[in-house]
Known about the structure:
Layout: H1 28-34, E1 40-41, H2 42-48, H3 54-66, E2 70-75, E3 81-86, H4 88-91, H5 93-123, E4 136-138, E5 144-146
Antiparallel strand pairs: 1-3, 2-3, 4-5
Amino acid sequence: MEIAADAPRFDPACPMSTFPVRIGDRWTAMVVLCLETRPRRFTELRQILAAVSAKVLTETLRAMERDGLVNRTVFDENPPRVECELTALGRTLLNLVEAARSWARDNLDDLLAARRRHDDRRRHPARATNDHTGIATRSQSGGTRPAGPTGQRRA
């Protein structure tokens, strides 16, 4: 396989190879924002980030701790209490997160319009074909529907 001349070439020792890609995941940036003003207990983060499961939040916080972005303090209490706070390194992400939020605010309308166009094309293709056979059939309503594996029309 030939590499394009204008494509970047990354040295294995490049700092980007250790870049914490999870900054772009669904929850890390939100956790950074939640911890911007003060340390928070795990249960408090769960309340603020209501859509995240305890498991995913735990995994996110542990990954952030491993990368040196968050300090997790476990208090020897019953039930155990866990408090999280941004480290100095984690605080450096605030500018990055704000830049991403600003970009999202400036481009949200275009982004959503592009998603709608893409989804509409996927929902209403000019001609739907079966991935396995390439056969398309007409539905009773007159629209094109993919054929089943035996070539029969799907219900």
